[in-house]
Every structure is written in structure tokens, then in C-alpha cells.
Design a protein that fits this description.
The chain is α+β, with helices and mostly antiparallel strands. Helices cover 25% and strands 32% of the residues. β9 and β10 form a beta hairpin. It is globular.
Length: 193
């Protein structure tokens, strides 16, 4: 089951490069429907979805968010929400120890790596937090950041919060953004699980 997780992560990442686009009317104040309403993407305060770079296919989506404007008090950051196909949340039935074991393995680190190479990622910590699994990572491509994995409406959802080459995001701020994005995701999908 955890081996399928790597394939799901790869599929979601591949959507960024595909020619798919989001449905018309995508986006609202604090949530936005994706995949014909199968799931609502929760939007943390101060951040907006970038409709030009976000992508949705028939079964999965990759949504990118950034700070709404320079005047907003929110930290400059890139929030990525990757949504797997229906039924993909089944991998979350594994306990925290099994998930941690997978993610620290070479296959798990390769799935987490922006380059696809296990040697480019170090797992600093891996822990369960309610219904989510959190990873504190150091990736050669983007530096140190946090990522979350959670099942929502039967779909595997991964969240990451990073800075950019020119404007880095402190790991503590990345964790705060992950927590805020998880809270927004849960609020947007309350009663639809």
C-alpha cells in the first residue's frame, strides 16, 4: 500500500506539467471546489490560489497558492496542495510508524524529493498529528520545509509550504502555514467525509 503512495505523489506532481486547467469559476474567499466538487481546497487567510499555474485533471489536481498581495501580513510562501484520485486515501490506514518507515526509506525519500533522487532529501522528523502525517524535510532543491499528508473525502492530499530562491521561508513559518492550510482544508470539507 505504501508503494502505491510513491506512484500517487508522482502522478500529482506530473499534473503541474500537463496542459489541464481548472474548472471555470474556480476560487472563492476561503475555499475552492476541485474535481467537479469532489473536494474543497481550503485557503488559509492571506493566501490566494494561482489559477494560471494550478492544474486539475479528471482524477487529480495540483493547486498552487501564494500570498494575495505585498500589503498582506502573510509570509511570502508557495503552498502546494496535491490531490490524488478517488480511493487514494487508503494509504493513510497505515499507522504513523509504518508511514515514517516508508518516508525514511530510499523509495520514500525519492517520492518526496523534487528531483526524484532519494539522496537529495533528508527527513528531519516524521510524526502523526490528528488525522494528518507531518514531515519536516530538507530538500536540496528548496531547503528546509514542512509537508503534510492527509486523507480527505477518500483522496490522498499532500500539502507543502516553501519559500523561493529569492525569498526563503523559515522552517517554523512553514510549519505554521501547514497547520493553517490543514485547518482550512478540514473546515472546507466538514460534513463531506
Amino acid at each position: 500500500m505504501l508503494i502505491r503512495f510513491a506512484a500517487i505523489l508522482g502522478l500529482c506532481a506530473g499534473l503541474v506539467l500537463s496542459g489541464c486547467t481548472l474548472d471555470a469559476g474556480f476560487g472563492s474567499a476561503r475555499s475552492a471546489p476541485v474535481l467537479d466538487g469532489a473536494l474543497q481546497v481550503g485557503i488559509p487567510p492571506g493566501y490566494c490560489i494561482d489559477n494560471k499555474t494550478s492544474r486539475a485533471g479528471k482524477e487529480s489536481a495540483v493547486i498552487l497558492m501564494g500570498r494575495c498581495s505585498d500589503a498582506v501580513l502573510a509570509k511570502p510562501a508557495l503552498i502546494t496542495v496535491s490531490i490524488g484520485k478517488s480511493g487514494s486515501a487508503g494509504v493513510m490506514t497505515a499507522d504513523g510508524a509504518a508511514l515514517a518507515k516508508f518516508f525514511i526509506s530510499p523509495q520514500g525519500r525519492a517520492a518526496l524529493s523534487r528531483s526524484g533522487r532519494a539522496g537529495d532529501v533528508q527527513v528531519i522528523s516524521a510524526l502523526s498529528s490528528g488525522d494528518a502525517f507531518l514531515l519536516h524535510l530538507k530538500d536540496r532543491s528548496v531547503g528546509e520545509y514542512w509537508r503534510a499528508v492527509v486523507g480527505t473525502n477518500g483522496r490522498l492530499v499532500t500539502l507543502s509550504a516553501t519559500g523561493t530562491e529569492t525569498v526563503p521561508l523559515a522552517p517554523a513559518d512553514s510549519r505554521v502555514l501547514i497547520d493553517a492550510t490543514l485547518k482550512a482544508l478540514r473546515a472546507a470539507n466538514t460534513g463531506t467525509r
